Every structure is written in C-alpha cells, then in structure tokens.
Amino acid sequence: MEFLVFVFVSHCCSWIDVRYLEVRVCLKDAMMSHVRRTWSLGRNRSGVSCRTGSASIATCSGDAALVLLSRSNDVFQNLALEDWIEANVDLQRRGVLLLWRNRPAVVIGRHQNPWAECHLPAMRGGGVPLARRRSGGGTVFHDLGNLNLTFFSSKTSYDRRRNLKVVTEALRQLRPALDVRATDRFDILLNGHFKISGSAARLSRKSSYHHCTLLHSADHSALANVLRPSCPGIQSNATPSVPSPVANLLDHAPTLQWEELLDALVRQYNAEFSSSSSSITVDPADEAAFPGVAAAAAELRSWDWTFGRTPKFRVETVLQLADERTAARCSARLQVEVKGGVVESCRLDVPADWLPPRLSGELSGVLVGGRFCRHRAAAAVTELTRSESGEARSRLKELGDAVLTAMG
Amino acid sequence: MPILPHHFPLLKSDPRSSVFQIQYFRTTAAYRDEVVTVRTPAFAESVTERDVRWEKAVGDTVSEDEVVCEIETDKTSVQVPSPVAGVIEELLVPDGGKVESGTALFTLRKGAAGAPKAEAPAAAASPPTSATLPPPPSSVGPIPTAMPPVPPVPAHVKMNRMRLRIAQRLKEAQNTCAMLTTFNEVDMSNITEMRKTYKDAFLKKHNIKLGFMSAFVKAAAHALADQPAVNAVIDDTTKEIVYRDYVDISVAVATPKGLVVPVIRSVDGMNFTDIEKAINLLGEKARKNELAVEDMDGGTFTISNGGVFGSMFGTPIINPPQSAILGMHGIFDRPVAVGGKVEIRPMMYVALTYDHRLIDGREAVLFLRKIKSVVEDPRVLLLDM
C-alpha cells in the first residue's frame, strides 16, 4: 500500500513554500519507509501533521527521535497505544515521545487498590471510568486540561531527570517568570509548592517508558469527590497514593495556550535529544496502523485487569442495620478477605436476635468465591432472599444492602 | 540481572518418532534438573524501598523471558522475567514484601517449556508403553520418544457458593413442581411490520429503541390477568395457593458477568412504551453495575429469551418461587400455511413451562395462545380480547 501525503511547509522567509513530499510506506513488507522531510523548525513553522502507518513508525530511520500526538481522548485506547509502542517500536537507537490527553478518568497505578483509592459509586454516577495503567506509582485524575507525556527509550537510555528537564526547560522558555523545578521524587513543582506534574514509569524486558502528567487547565472540583475510598476499613499493602496540593499552569500563566505548550515541548524534546522530528498525529483506534491495539485496549477495560489485579486485601468494618418496620437497630461486623478481586473469605457477625445465624452464615457463604463487586453480590443476595419470607426476608435484604454498600 | 549459564534450545524432528525432541545445547556444564535462584535486579538510580508483586505462583510453568513478578519501586514498575523455562519452586518473598538489589526472589527448576504441571502425573495414570520409567512428578524434563501423548488434565474447579445455591434451588424446583412444557409458534409479521413503521419516530420521541420484548411482556401481563392461576404460586410450607393481584415480570438477561433477572414491576398498568423504558432503565443499571437487590427481587412470572443466541426450540426451567416461565426463541423464516397457501413468514417458537400441580393443561395452553394472539395482532389489547 502506498499513499502520497501533501505537506505544507513554511520557510523561514515570509512567503509560503509548498513542497510535495512522497511518503512511500510499504505496510505489507514493513521493509521500506522513507520519510524525507525538508522543512525546518523555524519560528514560522506551521502545525504539520500527517498520518503514517505502523511500518514507518516502527522502522523509520534517519531521525534520532520520533514525536507522536494521539488524536484519541479515550484513556484505554491511549494506554493501549503506549503498550503497543513499547512492544513494537525499536527503541534501542531512538526514542519516542507520545503526547496524549483523556476525557475525565481515574487512572490507578499498577499495584494499587481501586477500592482504597477512589470512590467507585461517585465515578459511576459521574460516568468517570477507571483504568489501571501498567506503570507503578499513585492515582491520578485525568481530564482534557491535563497533558500526558510518555518518553519511550531503551533501558540503557532511561533517564527520568533528562525527560523532566525537557518539560521544565520548555516552560522556562515560554514563561521565564514561572518558577518550575523537578524534585527528587520526579514531581514538578510550581513556585516550590504546587505540584503540576507527577511521574510513573515502567521497565519491561526490552525497553522502558517514563510518563508524566502536566496540569494545564484541569478541573480540580471533580477531584475531591472521586479520589476518596469507596468503603471504610480497607487494610492492604497495595501501593498507596501520596496526595499533594496541585495547581494549573493556566492559573499562573493565563495566556498560555494549549497549542503553544505542545509546540514548546516538542521543540525542547528535539533540542534535548538532537532530533528534528515534527509531531505526527496517530489514531490509536486504527487497527491497521497498530495491529493488536484493539485487543490491548479491551484487556485494559476488563474487570480482570482493572479490579482482578488488586493485591490481596481485607475489609473490616461495622455495619449499622435498622429494620424499617419495627425501628429495631443493631450493629454487625463484616470481615472480608479479597484476593485477585474475588472474595476469599467472608465473616458476618450479626446479633442472633436480629437475624438467625443460619441466614447471616448463608449470606457470607454465598459471597465467597464471587467477585468483590456490588453487581455480582446483588445477584447472589437476591438468590438468598427469594427463598425467605416475612421479617427474616426484609432483615436479610437490609443486611445484604449494607454489605453491598461496603463493596463500593 | 540474574546470573545463569546461557543455553540454546534446539527443536529437532526425530524421524524415528512422531514426537519432537527438545535438546539443550549448553555452553557450561550445568545439569538439566538444576534449581536456579533468581535475584532482584540492580537499579542504576538508588531509591526507596522496593515491593515485589507476584504474577506467577509456586508450581506454575514459565517459559524463558516470561514475567514472573514485578518490582515496584519509586513509582516504577519493573518486570522480572524468568531466565529459563521451568517450573517455579518457591517464592522467597511474600506478595508486597520488600526487597533490595540482589535479594533472592524465587527458585526455579529448569525444564522444558510447556510441560504439564506437577498434578499431571496423577491423572496420567495410563502407563507408558515403553519399559523406561515415567519422568518423576516434580521434574518436567523432556519426555522420552516412546511416551504416548498425555491427554490434557481436566481442570477441577470447586463450585462457588452462589452456583451451589442456584443449583440447589433449581433442583428443589424440579423436585417439587410437576414441570411440563407446552409449545406454540408465533407469526411475527405484524409486530415486525409495526416496529419497522414506528421505530424511527419512537426513537425520536422517547429516546430509546423499540424492541420485541415489550410486546411479549405486555402480552404476558394481559394473559396473566386473564389466568390468575399462572400468576399464583403454591406455598409448600402452608400448603396454600398464593394468588397475587399484581404482575411483576422477571426478565432473564444473560450478561458477560452471568445471568441476572431484573424485575419489571406492576406491568399490568403499563403500555408498550412504559415497558420499553423500564427495560432500558434496568439494562443501563446492569451495564453500570448498579442493579440493586430490589431490582432483582420478587417477580411473579419470568420471561427468558433464548432467541438472542439463536435458539430455535427449548424448554425453559421455572424460576422459583414462581409457577411458570415463558421461553422466547429465535425468529426464523419458515414456510407456513396461510389461507390455504404456502407463505414464508418470520416465525418464533414459544414455550411455556408450568407447574402442573397448580395450572391445568387447558389453562396453560389457553395462556400461551393468548400471548400468541396479542403478539400476532396487538389490536387484541385495545379490544380487551
């Protein structure tokens, strides 16, 4: 398959010079790819973007680095694209920078506990999806005002400080008055106090990537509602998040446009890594360009990945029960052990005068082996209540509801 | 990185047998069944503590380069692959435990990749035809050429309590109810045509799609009002027949997460649109994982639609504590006799399984025929026929 791409190029002179470039991409053989670019990155450079196939990205020679801009705002597609690049692009001699942003989503680190990190009912209500990324670190709230940068490199060239220097230098050139500094923990602080960027990384068998956020104009009001635990009493050794005060660049530099920021970052990346790559727009939904990316995105969306990968934890909490008909009240204790997102053991201590131990025992029994998920548990509880009647049934339902609330 | 002798596996086809031989060609004098200790890799940047997260467990077979665990350190997740193919013997650090560079992580017994797990010898009781000893259970070394291929071990998975509970209830239902199924077929031409004519306008006005379920749900509600016995249930403990004056219809929905049976309440007062809205709302809740116990509790009658999977014919099983269930199946074009001539019509088989202790054959047949008549000509509802 071959296609021609017409590209407008602006010279450093005042008139516009149109050059026709031939981009011959042989996707079948993945053999040959020549992307000859003759434009210069002067101040008058227009926003150039062209679509190329995977072959050119995977085997393109000539440039010391490659800059990609994702056109998708879907967190799962973008994370899948990161996986794809890491697995398929030869990073030994050349690095890649991927720029992306997502519609509102919560992204937890590889080894974190979603029930402890975010409030699942609030997220469901707000239509905010949850994604677990493959790199370590803590929980972040993404939205369209947050820019994500992923620096791909070989394991030997892995250098987070150098990557963050790209960001701080770019910002310094844009707005010299801003005080931006990278810390030992690979955060970037504004005015020595507000966090505008956090990092996470992944070192796999062949290569590495380091990605970071950059808060341009994110909506912080949604944050507080969503970044709190789903249920009380969680005890786990999963990676915790470290909360910090955050700020948006836009609040301190009100004239800083998104496009301006992107351009400066690309320029600085090229300067740092001695390349002259212009940003190429890519579509992570394009299966032809990125074979296997849809399956990767599907895996990232799956319950097994998002919840099933949670390290073993236990929940110990007290449930307050009230019988609405007689106004009788009591407290019950719930202890659940969850491994791989599945209830391994469940213990309910309910006063015998409130509900026969046989029934509370059956309820805890029916939850074991099922997912620690309100939906699944609701079905299990219904199975039980169907066979009961009268007061036992309504109290069993009440207990069931309380347990479900503890599941987030 | 872990220090190990480098080796090159070669795959050869032995003309004497039909089994591929796997030979190991080593550059050092390491032995085949050697146990190897893999250590925490060193990091260039000195950092805070490192946590281990296991991806594999003791007894798992891993191939060369397959990830065994990940080490989380300083916001970085580092994969630790297996240096060789083999079986994991021991995990030396608990999940979430802290390690440093060089700490021993796990031990691995080298062996051919893809060999069956340690339980396999128990199931592979079929003795090898040759006189050579079968390989010892703990080792998974290459198998001698004379060994016949071992059948795959059936996985024994313990039933979880929910499945046990459902199984128990279903069996109880079968044992107490005198279950019987009556069949009929429904000509879907009129309802298909109605849907085709109105679906766009319906979507525009009500913002949801017009499906077939509403027709069947409404038809069932109409028939249930007509035959109260089908809406009733026998209480075995008190030996009473409980007649219910409300109609709550459970709709069985197979989701990837399992079967859920949400309930549409008080269907007798609803029209097609109300029913479609209710179904839509429940569907949304199911998708968002928000189905509550109240949404699935109760129900006086169940409708199950096997048609979505292409089922043509079948006997549904009653969903206790109810007395009957309607099974819908797939719509297929069939030649049928209409007014003395053969025509091709979209036909659906419907099945009604009922508790014969409570519902007579005649009642069951008339009930099903009423559903048929409503779906075949919804005007029947307007005329209360």
Automatic annotation (TrEMBL), chain A:
Associated pathway: Protein modification; protein lipoylation via exogenous pathway; protein N(6)-(lipoyl)lysine from lipoate: step 2/2
A Pfam family assignment: LplA-B_cat
One Gene Ontology biological process: protein lipoylation
Location of the BPL/LPL catalytic domain: 91-277
Single GO molecular function: lipoyltransferase activity
Name of the protein in its database record: BPL/LPL catalytic domain-containing protein
CDD domains assigned to the protein according to its UniProt record, in alphabetical order: LplA
Matches recorded under InterPro entries: aa-tRNA-synth_II/BPL/LPL, BPL_LPL_catalytic, LipoylTrfase_LipoateP_Ligase
Upper taxonomic lineage: Eukaryota, Metazoa, Chordata, Craniata, Vertebrata
GO CC annotation: mitochondrion
Similarity-based family: Belongs to the LplA family.
Top-level division of the source organism's lineage: Eukaryota
UniProtKB/TrEMBL annotation, chain B:
CDD domains: lipoyl_domain
Matches recorded under Gene3D superfamilies: 2.40.50.100, Chloramphenicol acetyltransferase-like domain
Subcellular location: Mitochondrion matrix; Nucleus
Biased composition (Low complexity): 118-132
Keywords per UniProt: Acyltransferase, Lipoyl, Mitochondrion, Nucleus, Transferase, Transit peptide, Tricarboxylic acid cycle
Cofactor(s) listed: (R)-lipoate
GO molecular function annotation: dihydrolipoyllysine-residue succinyltransferase activity
GO cellular component assignments: mitochondrial matrix; nucleus; oxoglutarate dehydrogenase complex
Enzyme class: transferase
Biased composition (Pro residues): 133-145
The UniProt record lists the keyword Mitochondrion: yes
Domain of life per record: Eukaryota
Span list, region Disordered: 118-145
Family classification: Belongs to the 2-oxoacid dehydrogenase family.
Protein name listed in UniProt: Dihydrolipoyllysine-residue succinyltransferase component of 2-oxoglutarate dehydrogenase complex, mitochondrial
Organism: Gasterosteus aculeatus aculeatus
